[in-house]
Amino acid sequence: MRRPTGSGTRSAGAGSLCVLAASVLWGTTGTAATFAPGVGPLAIGAVAMGLGGLLQALVAAPRIVRQAPRLRARRGTVLLGALAVAVYPLAFYSSMHLAGVAVGTVVSIGMAPLASAVIERVMDRRRLTRRWTLGAALGLLGTLLLCAAQATQDPGDRGQPSMAATMLGVGLGLIAATTYALYSWAAHRLITHGIASRAAMGTVFGLGGVLLVPVLLVTGPPLLDSGTNMAVGAYMAVVPMFAGYVLFGWGLAHVPASTATTLSLLEPAVAAVLAVLVIGERLPAVGWTGIALVLACLAVLTAPTAVLGRRRQRPDGVTPPQRTAAEHTVARSDPGRVP
């Protein structure tokens, strides 16, 4: 029996909402880390992604066991994703530490959609939609304005990092963006090849967590220095990393990795707002403009197709031919691909 044509749109909408919810959780990490100033960025990254990844693997263990043959058949993709998971938090939190929370977040997350688009173009020969291009342009412009807002802040009160530290932080942010795009692509590829999202995410993040354990053992002792530090570490591992990436995995089951990484541009906007409301940072008008553009990006990407225009027609008014059953199957499994 043919699935109703609207079901693919609803599925993509639910996937988008899962990614947006994950992005909100991720946006709290920079603010949370400020409550443990004595803990270094490598320890924060290792405890967040390491323990969070191991927890994902533990919860998904029955599914991983059942789908072990399929996972072994795609071990190259699994290992690539796991390596990216291990590198990402170390680069991401080091970037924020060196260049500042706003700049580190903006570069790491803001550049991820472009990295994801390049990866999908090279690996999957994907042609991206005009909607994605418009949304990505709005989101990237918004993140650049957020970055500019950070650069115009008065350095007197907050000890603005040196130019060398900022440039190194930006470089690490680019590494974080690339690895974020890589593990998103790897997880999406596993899911779209018949592996349940829990099993795919649990395997990739569990192996990544194993790779981060040595880093945690070396850099993690300050996490045990106080109850506050332990609470921050537990929060980072359980809420944004475990719960956030479970939501992200569900989202990747319904939207392409390039769309998911673009939707996650909500994260730097959330981080900037929390920095104002919780930490007491000031955000100039250009920063609020950047947040507005990010929200516009999200509106473009998540609006139902009917809102942006119903079925396309040729200039002569003739309706385009109906899709074949095979094309419907591709569209449902990969909503971001151009028909």
Structural class: mainly alpha
Taking the sheet with the most strands, its summary is:
none
N- to C-terminal distance: 22 Å
Q: How would you sum up the global shape? A: globular
Order of helices and strands: HHHHHHHHHHHHHHHHH
Tally of individual helices: 17
Estimated helix fraction: over 70%
| Rounded radius of gyration (Å) | 20 Å
Q: How many beta-strand elements?
A: 0
Mean pLDDT: 79
Low-confidence stretches: 1-5, 306-339
Q: Percent of residues in beta strands? A: under 5%
Explained architecture:
With 339 residues, the protein is mainly alpha-helical. It has helices spanning 6-26, 29-33, 41-59, 61-66, 68-73, 75-99, 101-110, 112-124, 130-151, 163-192, 197-219, 227-252, 257-263, 266-279, 285-302, 305-308, 325-333. Helix 3 runs antiparallel to helix 6 (75-99) and helix 6 crosses helix 11. The longest helix has 30 residues, at 163-192. The radius of gyration is 20 Å and the shape is globular. The two termini are 22 Å apart.
Keyword list:
single chain; 339 residues; mainly alpha; disordered N terminus; disordered C terminus
Ordered list of secondary-structure elements with their pairings:
Elements: H1 6-26, H2 29-33, H3 41-59, H4 61-66, H5 68-73, H6 75-99, H7 101-110, H8 112-124, H9 130-151, H10 163-192, H11 197-219, H12 227-252, H13 257-263, H14 266-279, H15 285-302, H16 305-308, H17 325-333
Helix pairs in contact: 1-12, 1-14, 3-6, 3-11, 3-12, 6-7, 6-10, 6-11, 7-9, 7-10, 7-14, 8-10, 8-13, 9-15, 10-11, 10-13, 11-12
